[in-house]
Amino acid sequence: MTPRTIEEATELAGRIEDQLNQVLIGQPAVTRQVMLALITGGHVLIEGVPGLGKTLLARSLARVLELDFQRIQFTPDLMPSDVTGHVLFDSQTGDFRVRKGPAFTNLLLADEINRAPAKTQAALLEVMQERQITIEGETFELDPPFVVLATQNPLDQEGTYPLPEAELDRFLFKILIDYPELEDETRMVEMVLDGSLPDSLDAEQLTRVTNAEGILALAHQAEAVILDRAIIDYILRLVRATREHPSLIQGGGPRASIALARTAKTQALLAGRDYVIPDDVKQVAPPVLRHRLRLGVDADIEGQTVESVLEQLLEQVEAPRQ
Amino acid sequence: MDLNRINARLAPRSCWQAVDFGTRLYRRWWRQGALVWLVFTALPFALLAGYGAATRSLWPMFVFWWLKPLWERPLLAFYSRALFGDYPSPWTLLRTFRSYGLNGLAAQLTWRRLSPLRGFLTGVWQLEGSKGDKVGGRISVLLRPPSQRAGTLTLTLLTLEHLMTVALIMLAMTLVPWQFNLEFSVWFQEQSRLQWAFANLAWYLVLMVTEPLYVATSFALYLNQRTWLEGWDLQLGLTRIGERRRRAGRGGAALLVLLALFSAAPHPAEAQASQPESRLKRDAAQSLLPLSTGGRSDFSRDNDAAESASTDDATPKQQALNLLASDTFMPFEERETRRLRESLRDDDNEDRSWWQDLLKKLLDRDRDNSDRDAPLSIPDAVVEGMGYLLLVVVLGVILALILQRLPGAAGRRRRGPDMPVSVAGLDTRADSLPADLNRALDEELARGDVRAALALLLRDGLITLFQRHPTPLTAGATEQDCLRAYQRLLGDEPVVAWLSDLINAWTRTAWAHRPSDRQQVNALRDRWGALRPALAGRAPS
Question: In this complex, which of B21, B475, B514 lies closest to A316 when CB atoms are compared?
Fold first, then answer.
């Protein structure tokens, strides 16, 4: 299905979300944010404890959208060529040929990304930013859409390499995935026990809703959403406020402003509007900004968090004036 | 170590974050640190500097420098107590110096004097009270990974000390008139007594800054290392959880406890007498730091908890209970109580205000019956009467809070939150509205400015609603935030439905640049015209 109107686009996005929510129970906010990133064409960093369905989400997304899906488990000995691919000598033909890596896909799940050394992370950085891969001087364009869903574990930090700020900035969203509510978890257990939900990473039961073209059409619709000048001004004031906040030693850069504007448009589309309202910006600000901000030591000692600072800023920065 | 008075959050930090934490400690109490430094060193420095200037000898200043570990002891005593909300005066530190300043000092002034880990390890002697063979073991434990940067810190602050001294001398040089012939270039060639004294004074002033900073940062490194090794942050967290659970458990019985405190219930002194002997001994032996009692400190107590539990003759279950009841697991609860009483007892010979007398009376009822006949004691009837009075006041406050939150009681509330000057980008000051709203709306519509007409209607709606139903709104609140706030407050009242329709029309006009038609605006105005008088007639909530 390729949407032509706002109503069709909203309906299509709603159907995709419904499918995802069938397997990822109790995480509607997470599926909404992943959808936002997918349509906006941005990459997602998901932080959460193991066992909350991160891999299942990626598989389900690939199934529902009929996208190519690859998974890389990041380990300390992972090499850049394990991500991008390499040239190997074919003894039968006597020629060198390119062996494409798992990054040649639509949906790439980079599991525990911060376990790989900086060199491998940098290789992925180029892929994320340029959406192309260079192997032995030859450049290969990636088929759109290309989205990296990277995960990192907040508890198990031993033997990890913290993601550099430059790489973090490449992620459109940082999504925090938490345990489901009691009611949702009860429903999940009941569904697994009665067999209506498979007890494995099986997304085969899901219905295909659209394909890559459908996603690109949604992205196209999102680009056409009206964004008033006053709201752009609001976005800039918000991002600049992060640079001046005394508790933060690093605020959002221009890339954050752009990401906020683009994501707000997609948020408006998913809400069934062809224009952005200030609330769209407020709703997407936390996942867009949280990984781009760095808390000062003093603020950390005083018990503040990036989330609490963001909350303050959203309350203090004046809403846009028309 | 009263949890409620702790001045920082314990967490396993990197070395540099720990140093930052120490810097913050220094910044918070820099005046007190400088005062402690002055009180302990001003006189010795003056004597040594005077002698050095008279004899033009470097030895006196070298002696002062060599004695740095001695001068740092009171500073560490101050910071280690200040962190937990206790602020000993310099005079108290001077008076009690023997209790904290002598252990291990000989080693620090002789073969350990040049150790770059000096500041970091001082805690082993001064705070933990380690002696003899234990010292080596404790040091090797403290030097385990995550390794501290105490050596680097010492070298950094030593460099800083010298740089600041030279900078201070050079700054002063630039301010001295040239007639005095004080040139830095010839400083080392010939020195007058004035120059000599001045250089020493500059060094001393710099030390007044760098020494408290060095002690505070080294102490922070020491705390951090113990947090890493012994999970102090976890211990604090568990203690808080335990405290919360206890409070929750006490919630329902709080009033009964209050009542029992002031009533003729069995005297607490009797109950205390029935406590296990070991518990009483521990109570008596407890002290926050060696400073307060001359005994062993909290910093050392944790190390001994496991030993005491294992040497107990009781059953394994009893041993486990003893261990759980030991300071390793609950180091703060008993200290809080003891310190309050201890502090009052310490002040026995000093003048006390009436409330201190009362507090002491209340706290010591369970300890000392003989106080009843003392001249300063307050009769039990008065104490019990005041207890009942307090109970009545507490019950009254609780009742008032409940009544205030009952449905329909909103009108009794005198004062709500203030209306921000601007909400959703609109001027929401009441005096900014035109006197005749209908006329102003007609004028805007006649001009064809639907956006301005809707803005007027929205401003009037928000201001009127806020005056009748104050709700917390911030400058960052959007139109939807306002709508959500009133949906929460008023549910599905007609005015909320009207506000929702108005905000929909407004957002389409303002943000989608698709102005509503005049009929729609007029319909909204008519609905508001019907709702407004009813709203205005209602008592403000």
Answer: B475
Contacts of A226 in chain B (CB under 8 A): 511-513
Task: Tell me the two tokens of residue A244.
Answer: 């001046």
How far is the alpha carbon of B480 from chain A, nearest alpha carbon, in Å? 7
Higher-pLDDT residue of B108 and B7 is B108
Nearest to B52 by CA among B196, B201, B158: B196
> How many CB atoms sit inside 10 A of residue A81's CB?
15
Residue B364 above 70 pLDDT? no
Distance CA A141, CA A104 (A): 9
Q: How far apart, in Å, are the Cα atoms of B372 and each of B343, B368, B385?
A: 20, 8, 16
- Domain annotation for chain A: domains and CATH numbers: 1-224 (3.40.50.300), 225-322 (1.10.8.80)
Nearest to A124 by CA among A113, A139, A135: A113
Asked if the C-beta of A155 comes within 8 angstroms of chain B's C-beta atoms, the answer is: no
Residue pair A275/B512 in contact by the 8 Å Cβ criterion: yes
Residues of B in contact with A314 (CB under 8 A): 476
Chain B CA closest to residue A313: B476
What are the backbone angles phi and psi of residue A298, rounded to the nearest 5°? -60, -45
Q: Element (H or E) spanning A259, and its range?
A: helix A254-270
**DSSP single-letter state for residue B408:** T
From chain A, the residues in CB contact with B513 under 8 A are: 226, 228, 275
Inter-chain CB proximity B476 and A316 less than 8 Å: yes
Q: What is the C-alpha end-to-end distance of chain A, expressed in Å?
A: 37
**Digit-coded pLDDT (tens) for B299-358:** 554 444 434 433 444 455 565 566 555 544 443 333 444 444 455 555 555 555 666 666
Q: What residue ranges in A74-210 does DSSP mark as E strands? A: 85-90, 95-100, 107-111, 132-135, 138-141, 147-152, 171-176
pLDDT confidence band for B147 (50 / 70 / 90): low
- Environment class of A111 (CB within 10 Å of its CB; exposed 0-12, middle 13-18, buried 19+): buried
- Among B71, B68, B52, residue whose Cα is nearest residue B60: B52
Are the C-beta atoms of residues B34 and B208 closer than 8 Å to each other? yes
CA torsion B72-B78-B80-B86 (nearest 10°) is 180
Chain pair A-B, CB pairs under 8 angstroms: 83
Point out which residues pair with A248 in neighbouring strands. Answer: A295
CA dihedral B186, B189, B195, B199 (to 10 degrees): 90
Q: Among A124, A85, A120, A132, which residue's Cα sits nearest to residue A108?
A: A124
Residues of B in CB contact (< 8 Å) with A are: 8-9, 17, 20-21, 24, 422-426, 451, 455, 474-481, 507-508, 510-514
CA end-to-end span of chain B: 45
ipTM summary value: 0.75
pLDDT, one tens digit per residue, over A279-299 is 999 999 999 999 989 888 878
CA distances from A155 to A47, A48, A50, A304, B230 (A): 10, 8, 9, 19, 19
- Contact between residue B74 and residue B97 where contact means Cβ atoms under 8 Å apart: yes
A318: nearest CB among B8, B425, B510: B425
Are A125 and A168 within 8 A, CB to CB? no
C-beta atoms of B422 and A318 within 8 A: yes
- Is B269 a residue whose pLDDT tops 50? no
- Nearest-Å Rg of the Cα atoms of chain A is 20
Alpha-carbon distance values, A97 to A80, A127, A138, B380 (Å): 18, 20, 11, 97
A322 with B451: Cβ contact below 8 A: yes
Which distant-in-sequence residues (6+ apart) come within 8 Å of B429 by Cβ? Answer: B419, B421, B463
Nearest CB to A301; choose among B24, B478, B507:
B24
Give the count of alpha carbons within 13 A of A206, CB side only. Answer: 27
